[in-house]
Amino acid sequence: MTFGEQPAYLRVAGDLRQKIVDGSLPPHTRLPSQARIRKEYGVSDTVALEARKVLMAEGLVEGRSGSGTYVRERLEPRRIARSGFRAPAGASTAFRQEQAAEGAQGSWDANSAQEPAPDAIAERLGVAAGERLMRTRYVFRESGRPMMLSTSWEPLSLTGRTPVMLPEEGPLGGCGVVERMAAIETVVDNVVEEVGARPGLAEELVLLGGVPGHVVIVISRTYYASQRAVETADLVVPADRYRLAYHLPVR
């Protein structure tokens, strides 16, 4: 292979990718078999297999047990608007600051339980490892389809024995962190978010309806009141179905 030349498996993957993009291999079409790829491109079994792995890792094809590998339907990514941390006056959205764009109908399921703080979460909240937290897991849905997971943690040293101890129950159940904390005279004045990406965990992809190996966007978010962390959460979004759109005011 000369300098700058692509490896054979990438050239094969690139040609098959182009056929998927231009519609020569439309959605739900069976991908050429390994033997056919080997014959058509004059490559080895290893090269043919690696090319198929590339397309699968990119989410362009999916394996179906006992049937083969098929071109996946390509969905136009939808926007998740993150424009602030207070809902607009009169607005009603199931996503609060995790709004789906274009007026999507949102809903969510949640369950809460007390648990000791894992080391990484304790560090984010500035508490001792093992301190009791309220952990709440969410599955957010857009028009009935899972779109995002969220796991949040709040120190019970702050919310314990108050009306907002359970985020989704009581008089402020379902309200955002800012409103709930205000009810116990804690003013949230700062939010930090870190955005990254990684392969989705098996349990995440089962809930989100993804394919093993698919990439997810992870937002690690922490709310602060006078430099004290009052809530931290990890939000997980399928990278092939959604993009994050931030609208930040200029002050």
Task: List its traits.
single chain; 251 residues; alpha+beta; Arc Repressor Mutant, subunit A; Chorismate lyase; 2 domains; 6-stranded antiparallel β-sheet; 3-stranded mixed β-sheet; 7 helices; 11 strands
What does this entry look like structurally?
The protein has 251 residues and is of the alpha+beta class. The chain has two domains: 8-71, Arc Repressor Mutant, subunit A (Orthogonal Bundle); 78-246, Chorismate lyase (3-Layer(aba) Sandwich), CATH 3.40.1410. Helices cover 24% and strands 34% of the residues. The protein has helices at residues 8-21, 34-41, 45-57, 119-125, 156-159, 177-183, 202-208, and strands at 61-64, 68-71, 78-82, 99-100, 106-116, 132-142, 145-155, 190-199, 215-225, 228-238, 242-246. The strands form three sheets. Strands 5-6-7-10-9-8 form a six-stranded antiparallel β-sheet, sandwiched between helices. Strands 4-3-11 form a three-stranded mixed β-sheet, with no helix packed on it. A two-stranded antiparallel ribbon has the order 1-2. A hairpin with a 3-residue loop joins strand 1 and strand 2. Helix 1 packs across helix 3 (45-57) and helix 2 packs across helix 3 (45-57). The protein is elongated and about 70 Å long. The model is unreliable at 87-94 and 96-102 (pLDDT under 50). Residues 6-74 form the HTH gntR-type domain. Keywords: DNA-binding, Transcription, Transcription regulation. Residues 86-113 are annotated as: Disordered. Pfam families: GntR, UTRA.
